[in-house]
Write a structure and sequence with these properties.
Length: about 425
Amino acid sequence: MNAQPYLSRADKRTLGLSSLGGALEFYDFVIYVFYAKLISELFFPSTLSPFWAMLNTYGIFAAGYFFRPLGGVVMAHFGDLIGRKRLFSLSILLMALPTLMIGIMPTFESIGYAAPLLLLLMRVIQGIAIGGEIPAAWTFVSEHVPERRIGIANGLLTAGLSLGILLGALMSLFISLQFTEAEIKDWAWRVPFILGGIFGFVALYLRSYLKETPVFKAMQAKKELAKELPVKQVLLSHKTAVGIGMLFTWFLTGCVVVLILAMPNLLVASFGFERADAFKMQSAAILMQMLGCIIAGVLADRFGAGKVILLGSIFVAAMAGIFYHSLGHVEASTVFMLYMLLGLSSGTVGMVSYSMVKMFPAQIRFSGISFSYNLAYAIAGGITLPLVQWLSLYSNIGALYYIWTVCLVTLFTALLYRSKFEKTA
């Protein structure tokens, strides 16, 4: 491992190229959800009720998440045995190709029921790819940078995920402003997907210049690579690390899905905000979350991820309480400022990857991170929005109670993490 305390030019290049895949994932996430209604009309028969068409569209979207754990385990297995770089390139190829294909594939009108089946296949391939992409990036970067800079590296990398959300939202807004409804339905909806696919192929080319991690090359030279199935070793010997990693991932999912992605709908539907204003607030919160990820990384390098996540969970809970209770009671400008602070606090999630890098030994690190993250994301991603929706039946700010629960669990998990994996004075 490089002993120098700062990020070199090569480290920064590695960091930048590694963040592209995660950004593409969240970009694709946003544009698919944004055009979900249009996709439901184009890829299913007109005789199908709008409700069932939308349900099928979201079901196809969710299918990608169900395949994440499988993709994560399989790709991580080979990543621990044959190298991080090869799987890192494969994962972005399997993300870029389906995104491009969704943009150019025929609709139901042209090929009938083959259209939704092809759409489902594309989402499954994306799910498999995504399962390997983000854990690969976390592992790859953490094994390249100096030990004392793993925190800031992971903070910057996670900030890249938030950037993907912002780019997806901006692209969707641009299309809606530049084209008429008829043009969008006819062909313009395809543009964001095509551009996303092209972006992915450019990223694939650029990643060819990356080098295998020093950690993996050292293990390869010393013949210290995992002798058994890596995921088997993870489950047999690292159950505590898996449990902690899954609970931290739940925190990450809650902060991203509830506090960022779902917020505009709440502001518009329940509190009468204009959609344009809600989008501006969301964009500002995303930028603040990116800043929060970087700050959390700097602090983690100095004080440890455990302390940062512990205090961060309290910060998120406090800001969420203030923000949600302000809705409908204070001026819009005040809500805007409070939402920015909430976005900043949610940057704590940037240290979830740092904690997992520290918990798993190098031989099975890729598999350990991938299994914990993808299994938890599949579960949490599936239950978060339905639970929040159910809570909203009882209160407009029902989401707050979900966030408070997640933060409380995270606080105790951070205490356990510190006692098990960090030397505390």
